[in-house]
Structures are given as C-alpha cells and as structure tokens.
C-alpha cells in the first residue's frame, strides 16, 4: 500500500511546489508508481509537470466539493509512472464552501484510501497556509516533508506549523510523522545560509536530510517548460540534488521496512 507524503510549510516561497513536482518525478524515474495531488489553488504543480490547465475537466475541487470520485479525477501526466490529481483556482473558495460539510477534514483521506494500493507514493502539494485544505492533506498523510529556505526568516512560522502538526496527530491522525526537513535554495557562498542550516539542524536534529537543494537556474527555468528539472537538465545541480534527496527518502523507507520485519 502506498505511502502518502504531504509537502507542507505555511510560509510561501520556500520551494513546496518545486519539491512536490521534483520529488514525484524523481520517484517515478526510480520506478515507483506515483500519484501527485495538487491541493493548492494556485495549481502550479499542474503546469510544473506539463499538464495544460485548459484541458482539465475535473479537479481536486470536484472531489472536495462535488463528491466526485478520485478515480474519475486522476489524469496522466505524460511522464512514465506519474499520474496526477490536478487543482484549479476555484479551490480558493473551498474553505467557505466546506464550512457546513460533515467530516470535511477527512474527505481527501477517504478518497485516497480507495486508490492507495495502486501507488507506491502519493505526494501532496499543499497551499501556503494551515487552513482546511492543508488539514485535509495532513489527515490523509502518513508523513510530511517540510521544505525550508535557508534565509533569515527560515524558522518563522515553523513553531505554528509544528503546533498544527501536533494537533492533527493528537486528534485526527495519530500515525502522522515528520518524514524529514529539506533545506532549499541553499547558497554555499553566503555565511547566513550556513548559520541557518545550523539552527535548523539543532531544531529538527536527525530529521533534516543530508541533501540540500541549491539555488539553481535550471530548477527555476524548468516549470516554464512544463518539466520537472530531472527531465529539463538531468546533469544540473538541481536535478542531481533532487535525485539525491529521493534516494534518501527511499533508503529511509527501506530501513523502516527492515525494522518492521525484524
């Protein structure tokens, strides 16, 4: 049965969508069957894998609001082993539309459970907020990956995120774990980046991945071509780093599986 991982940080501009798209693509390249779910109203993950937004008939909005079945919303991305549940701008009104819906925080979980066994990984790209959309993702997830940009305000809001994480785990999803913390937009030339890295590693300790995603022009350019960076420039530092990150994810999963069997 697949593992559901949400990419979450309520701070914007930290590389959530970039990480979700490239994590999903690199897992697919590693022969993992992957479903990428875009639950962000900005729908940037949709264009990030080359899907034409105008071609979308149904989206995550229809699952949450119109009771559409997830099986009818999943689309092909054109990338081997990678399928998607797209988002759309109408999702921005979901917070209001879901106010009177019973068990509204469990809608995504109930849908994912129907198709979870068809995938090795379900990767969820969350919006930059801790509202009902992100809560749906956290309730449905086995774990979260937290991308953190190595800048002055890096840890701003992390305490609030972890407070929400603990509330979800205590009340709605007792099995939710922190998969790991990924340092993004890392510039080795700047002393502040190294100082921030030290602070983050003190805060999260062994949960911080060894791999750091560098500032890389190829990572920034790839979405404009509708491609994950691994397909845009496989030899770029960004592509290599995201593949190294996914290797860490898979190695961690393998260790967990060995531990459970023993």
From TrEMBL:
Annotated AAA domain residues: 3-178
Q: Give the source's domain of life in one word.
A: Bacteria
Q: Which InterPro entries match?
A: AAA_dom (IPR025669), DNA_Partitioning_ATPase (IPR050678), P-loop_NTPase (IPR027417)
Question: Which PANTHER family does the entry mention?
Answer: P-LOOP CONTAINING NUCLEOSIDE TRIPHOSPHATE HYDROLASE, PARA FAMILY PROTEIN CT_582
What name appears for this protein in its UniProt entry? ParA family protein
Q: Which organism is it from?
A: Candidatus Mcinerneyibacterium aminivorans
Question: Which lineage do the record's taxonomy fields give for this organism?
Answer: Bacteria, Candidatus Macinerneyibacteriota, Candidatus Mcinerneyibacteria, Candidatus Mcinerneyibacteriales, Candidatus Mcinerneyibacteriaceae
